[in-house]
Design brief:
- The protein has 644 residues and is α/β, with parallel strands linked by helices.
- Helices cover 31% and strands 23% of the residues.
- It contains 21 helices and 30 strands.
- The strands form eight sheets. It has an eight-stranded mixed beta sheet, with helices on both faces. A seven-stranded mixed beta sheet has the order 5-4-17-16-18-19-20, with helices on both faces. Strands 21-22-24-25 form a four-stranded antiparallel beta sheet.
- The longest helix is centred in the first third of the chain and has 17 residues, at 109-125.
- Bound molecules: 5'-O-[(S)-butoxy(hydroxy)phosphoryl]adenosine.
Length: 644
């Protein structure tokens, strides 16, 4: 733990909406009187029918139920668009920066209204009704936000699938959501490279069925169009009305499903609902990022991840902000791209992932320093623990020592930020996410569930509900209860380890389950393993994470081949390619080690603890191997470890 402290700068203290004393007072109140606190905060959005009940939640393993503002009604698109029109019709809602630096577009709130209404009417024309699931498989173009908000407007439930996922992964998500309408583009464009989105949808629909595919034109590439199933968005949009009334939704009606990896099985559909999610994301967007009217706010995530949902689309637009959407990548056409965009659009608030910082850091200071960045006021980090070295560089080089960094810890499941400094209130420590947000009750427990006090290290749980929390695993409430509420009954288990220091600041140490975090993307080792064993030459596979300088964690696969199959460099490459093809490029294994045998207990359980140590190169710390069925296996693996 770095002991360095960056106190709140004086100018921040002076203009802080929340200073330290206010933070303490409000935080305490939010835990003691959640009903009173959240009833007040919920006034920040417009309700159609006001709620009379605030919080009705149970974390009891056998009866998990999470309901906020349940008798209120509202509409998310109305809150993100319509209610801003009287004051902000001509204000820019979305700045879209294309992959090509000469291409950008400003969309006002009035234009956003029309675009979303048209999109909603196109969906309606194709039979989409309240509660229906719509799969969105789009690149980072404004239509992704239009489509999400269009679903919200008519009460359909979107399931956004990241454009980097393979046809197989897409098919699994379409099937699980029982989604009959898919929205995609002809191709995506990132870093000058084309991604064949429509072709991927076609391949997915060879395996699962859907009634309708709506195709947005991005590159104009030639694509196959299946008559009666596939429709060009532009042609459809020209046929519909430019206005569409919003649907009245219950606070607990579903807003979206977002698939995320766990330690076992296939990805889970995290279900988020309407009222609580919007209250939580808009409040946290305002306070964590110190968002103020007139700011240009930029989160570099993809809308395929929860960060894009909560902090590109819903939180910022609910606050009437100008949110920037970037189609490209940090190193195209050059490694100055992020900072050139900051200068071009005078970005005030910039939110990115440690993996991007580390990659840019490796390219040196010059590409940063040739840009001005004087518009920047605040920096943010999300997705994985940020190493103090990267934090210092981000602070000193990118922010020129002037911009606080908010290290925001949260998850797909949490809907919004749960632990983060509030700039202006909380002193910063490189590598620490510091303090819980209002209404969030973190605890550190030991493996038996004993709550640890004071400075300590253990497992991170949250003792009570907050409005942005996911409500269930789509179609499998039992899995929801088992995954999150059974390890420590009565508490939400995050899957993360954490330390708390003597000041009460939290330090997230990383996943304690079989989830790995590769470049801020979450993957289950079981998913990669099942892709590997699906290959005809593989008999068994065990996958673990290992420290990687840029990605945070890399993917290390131990693979046992079928009898009679010879290991070769060619086969190694084939397996790497195979996994990319099965899941998507984010799952590309960094190291494949052929293993004649895997370390197993006498009952046949693979001892991952040992494999992790081998992958980390910690050969001296393999621990007790005496319970292994064949201890000789370990020696062999150590000897053959690539790069040794
Ligand atoms: C996991 C959640 C939250 C949106 C992006 C990832 C890790 C996330 C931090 C942080 C340390 C972090 C955790 C968490 N994580 N942010 N600031 N410090 N770790 O969402 O894909 O659901 O992944 O990402 O391990 O459990 P996700």
């Amino acid at each position: 733990m770095s002991q360095k402290i960056y106190p709140v700068p004086d100018d921040w203290k002076k203009r802080a909406r929340i200073d330290e004393a206010t933070y303490r007072r409000l935080y305490e109140r939010s835990l003691k009187d959640p009903d009173g606190f959240w009833a007040e905060q919920a006034q920040r959005i417009d309700w159609i029918t006001p709620f009379s009940k605030v919080k009705r939640t149970s974390f009891d393993t056998h009866n998990v139920s999470i309901r906020w503002f349940e008798d209120g009604t509202t509409n998310v698109a109305m809150n993100c668009i319509d209610r801003h029109l009287p004051e902000r019709a001509n204000k820019t809602a979305i700045i879209w920066e294309g992959d090509d630096p000469s291409v950008s577009r400003h969309i006002t709130y009035a234009e956003l209204h029309e675009e979303v209404c048209r999109f909603a009417n196109v969906l309606k024309r194709h039979g989409v009704k309240k509660g229906d699931r719509v799969t969105i498989y789009l690149p980072m173009i404004p239509e992704a936000a239009f489509a999400m908000l269009a679903c919200a407007r008519i009460g359909a439930v979107h399931s956004v699938v990241f454009g980097g996922f393979s046809p197989d992964s897409l098919a699994g998500r379409i099937a699980d959501a029982e989604s009959e309408v898919i929205v995609t583009a002809d191709e995506g464009l990132r870093g000058g490279k084309k991604i064949p989105l429509k072709a991927n949808v076609d391949a997915a629909l060879d395996k699962v069925s859907a009634k309708t595919v709506i195709v947005v034109t991005r590159t104009g590439a030639e694509i196959d169009m299946q008559p009666g199933r596939d429709f060009r968005y532009e042609e459809e949009a020209a046929r519909v009305h430019a206005d569409c009334p919003y649907a009245e939704m219950d606070a607990e009606d579903p807003l979206f499903i977002l698939y995320t990896s766990g330690s076992t099985g296939k990805p889970k559909g995290a279900l988020h609902t309407t009222g609580g999610y919007l209250v939580y994301t808009s409040l946290s967007h305002e306070l964590v990022f110190d968002y103020r009217e007139g700011d240009v706010y930029w989160c570099t995530a993809d809308v395929g991840w929860v960060t894009g949902h909560s902090y590109i689309v819903y939180g910022p637009l609910a606050n009437g902000a100008t949110t920037l959407m970037f189609e490209g990548v940090p190193n195209y056409p050059s490694v100055s791209r992020f900072w050139e965009i900051v200068d071009k659009h005078k970005v005030d608030i910039f939110y990115t992932a440690p993996t991007a910082i580390r990659a840019l850091m490796a390219a040196g200071e010059a590409p940063v320093k040739k840009t001005s960045r004087k518009s920047l006021r605040l920096l943010g980090s999300v997705g994985e623990p940020i190493n103090p070295e990267a934090w210092e560089w981000y602070h000193r080089v990118v922010g020129e020592g002037r911009c606080p960094i908010v290290d925001t810890w949260w998850q797909t499941e949490t809907g919004g930020v749960l632990i983060s400094p509030l700039p202006g209130a909380i002193d910063l420590k490189p590598g620490s996410a510091t303090r819980p947000f209002f209404g969030v009750a973190p605890e550190i427990v030991d493996p038996l569930g004993n709550v640890l006090q004071g400075a300590c290290e253990g497992l991170l749980v949250i003792a009570d509900s907050w409005p942005g929390q996911m409500r269930t695993v789509y179609g499998d409430h039992e899995r929801f209860a088992q995954t999150y509420f059974s390890a420590f009954p009565g508490k939400y288990f995050t899957g993360d380890g954490a330390k708390r220091d003597s000041d009460g600041d939290y330090w997230i140490t990383g996943r304690v389950d079989d989830v790995i975090n590769v470049s801020g993307h979450r993957l289950g080792t079981a998913e990669v393993e099942s892709a590997l064993v699906a290959h005809e030459k593989v008999s068994e596979a065990a996958v673990v994470g290992y420290p990687h300088d840029i990605k945070g964690q890399g993917i290390y696969a131990f693979v046992t081949l079928n009898q009679g199959v010879a290991a070769s460099e060619h086969l190694r490459k084939e397996l790497v390619h195979w996994v990319r093809h099965e899941i998507g490029p984010i799952a590309t294994p960094d190291i494949v080690q052929f293993a004649p045998g895997l370390p197993k207990t006498r009952s046949g359980k693979i001892m991952r603890r040992i494999l992790r140590k081998i992958a980390e190169g910690e050969f001296g710390a393999l621990g007790d191997t005496s319970t292994l069925a064949d201890p000789g296996v370990v020696e062999e693996l150590v000897k053959e470890r690539p790069g040794r």
